Input
Amino acid sequence: MARAGRITTAHSSFETPIFMPVGTQGTVKSVHQHELKNDIDAPVILGNTYHLYLRPGTDVISEVGGLHKFMNWNRSILTDSGGYQVFSLSDNRKLTGEGASFRSHIDGSKHLFTPENVVDIQRIIGADIIMAFDECTPWPCDQSYASSSLDLTHHWLDRGWDHFRNSEPKYGYSQSFFPIVQGSIFPELRKISAEKIALLGAEGNAIGGLSVGEPVEDMYNMIEVVNVILPADKPRYLMGVGTPVNILESIERGVDMFDCVMPTRNGRNGMLFTSNGIINIRNRKWMKDFSPIDEPGHSIVDMQYSKAYLRHLIMAGELLGGQIATMHNLAFYLWLVREAFNQIMKDEFMPWKAKMVKELSMRL
RNA sequence: GGGGAGAUACCAAAGUGGCCAACUGGGGCAGACUGUAAAUCUGCUGUCGUACGACUUCGGAGGUUCGAAUCCUUCUCUCCCCA
Output
């Protein structure tokens, strides 16, 4: 069931449901922190442990006093643990009881991530929310693989959780630790995982291993299975999701936090999400459409530039094109979750959502 | 006036007797993208057809050959060098 809430960290306080732009390498690609704050008004963004550990490295981030200072971002940061890279860079890694040994995609050098040192790295980064080190299970996978993968993730979770509680923040403000439910698309496994995680009493809980290629219905089913178990008084974070429709469907099922590369990456590739539907701005039909990118518009770019101009920029490979598209998409995503909050507060979420889902999936 | 090089699809450019409806790049058209190795990747791009395929193409005209973008004749045009 859809809920509205509030999360407060050392760096910001914000209402949920919330969408968190992905800023893997200490930047939300193509937008300034200034725009992220003043135009898009994102209260929290992501960083990535794997990428920041490899480059610029923990010595740099440690010396400057954390990622907030390094990138000049004084709102919240959540760091992914590198569990997703265990999945997406799987050709370069090996999983052991100890952790994940892997080769850098940058220079081939060998490294080992353990549930403990991944917490340490996130302490150094200074993330407001630290994610547990997990294996993001690939899809498809059979139940026996999913089961042993889950055992590994749980084993890592126990160690990471212990280490988190026995270590101190480096910069004088508190950090939270979110465990991650896995179990692929098997309800029994998801249940086991959610029950284990509910018992930890963490400040928030995440659902991982979804939107990796499985049918959306499976994803929604898993969310339902898990959310009856995860504590109702703690935020629930669905990792890596998703399309605007995915987000509304998940909010309906009791999810509070989201992140996804879609608004940024797809935006750079010419895909715009609007309240009227999805636009591929590269399509010829926009060539002479001089109407605003999106009316009424949730970002300053929406009313200031036309579809035809944005199409021209993207077609010409101009950097400003990716920038405008990203700003539009992020502002739209943030508007969407803000509006979801408003509708929940008015107790009108369900009819609003039904109407939105219809429009959001249109191809314009 | 003399000498030389060349004309290939939207553009550039390979191909110099059959494996050519024609390499490759660009451009164009469309698609993909879900805790970012992505401002990336994929497909199509003569006509008709879903496809097997059929048909018309390599400056124009004619010829040689079983077979020509490729060889010959001729015409037109372009570029370079010397005067």
In short: Chain A has a mean pLDDT of 96. The CA atoms of residues 88 and 136 of chain A lie 9 Å apart. Residues 319-345 of chain A form the longest helix (27 residues). The radius of gyration of chain A is 20 Å.
